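## Example pair
The file below holds two records. Each record gives the amino-acid sequence first, followed by its structure token line.
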Amino acid sequence: MIPEGITGEELDVEAREELRTLPKDLAALVARHLVAAGQLVEEDADLAYRHAKTARRLASRVGVVREACGLTAYHAGAWSEALSELRAARRLPGREDLYLSILADCERGLGRPERALDITRSKEAGSLPKEERIELQIVESGARRDLGQFDAAVVALQIPELKDRRLRPWSARLFYAYADALVAAGREEEAKDWFLRSAAADRDEETDATERYAELDGLEIIDTVDPETAEEAPEPGLASDLEPAEPEALEPEAAEPGPREPESPLTLSFQPPPDSLPDLEEPDPEETD
């Protein structure tokens, strides 16, 4: 059932334009399912995927529908379906260079890290915009970890953007992935600084960097507020005055390989603490990369 209040007009102009190839009533119904999928994907990915599949059943030849189906399948962990739908979407004009990092991550989810690495080394990967290239390098690092190549996973993320002191759209995810790779390589003290950096950069609360830092530092965040009497729960804080080191290129150290489970590409929400985090400069709105 489509949630009340969704009319389909919430869909962006370009997507609605693609639906004009359908009869008017059908286009309106498909649009409502797409809007529902978009609104639900963060809170209930499985339900969002069901809405997208309904839209696909009604309009399988519309590019935006195949994209929605592929992306919601990805968020729902349906790796094979996501690969199929997004590959189909990429065959449509104007979409040839999209979703490369997601395709690679799906290969990881299917337990095929070698195929993920093939995608990261493909000719297409070299022509991606910076943000997409960074996402692909994050996937490459994860694939290296899947293969037990922990030092190589660290090196894969030692890129110039790691030293950038200005807040970027990719900062939180890049710092978090680097910290994760350091943990896997047995370099937990270095990883703590990078989890702190990720928490400071994560203004949209996309990662659990705070909890990961607390776990490594032996801290425990305890909620002492009675939820029945408190109007608002306080944000957790960290009892730490660490001054994170300046990022620098790191020489790989030997680490004992071991079996690793493929990571889910989904991130967890958290509430970052107000104190004890390194400052990052806000991006200059007039600056372009």
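Second record, same layout:
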Amino acid sequence: MTQTRTAIGILELDEGREPGYYLRSPRQDSLLNPATFDRPILTEMVEGAFAEAVIAGDPSLEEACVRAARRLVERGAGVVIGDCGFLIRHQAAVAAAVKVPVAMSSLLLIPAMLQQLAPAQKLAVITADSRHCTEDLFCINNPAHRARVVVGGIEGGEYVRNAVARPAARVSIDTIEREVAGCIIRLRAEHPEIGALLFECTGFPVVASALRRSTKLPIYDITDLCKLTIGAVA
């Protein structure tokens, strides 16, 4: 049945691997797992999009993102999704270049999520690197709304060290959960009014279910945005 459904096109980062490298099967609940969406996945690597360059916001990557997105649409993708939340910097350029819905980052959800919360509550963005997850990426202009968004990151941990390695290396799910959970605990201690969490990093959905149970908070990530987008065009 998945073969008759609209394909999801994903812009992948350049992990510095040799051509033809075989990666292990995508993890359960991950963005790259077709079972997450019950439909086929198409991927195109964005040339030169190494994790450290994407996180830091290298503007020279924009044209490579556009070219990869066009290749995805030519291959039959019905939507284009980014495999790193920091690709939001290229949202406008990619959306202008293709004639299918584009969702480059879960950060696009921030305005809607703020509306779901009580005015006294805050939204916590959990990111791979809080040093580069700045408010200009939040898609909101109202200073009062911006003040309700707090950011915590896991920079310096094993997950990020492995992500920026060349070639990139996979870490255990236990490691991801431990690092993300620790970040959430620290952030909630500082901001007890947090009412929901948003995962910027596309590597975090694999631990979202476990952390929903432990935090008792709503958690949104890129797979939620992807499901919303593909559901609207299917």
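Notes on the second record: The longest helix spans residues 173-190. The mean pLDDT is 94.
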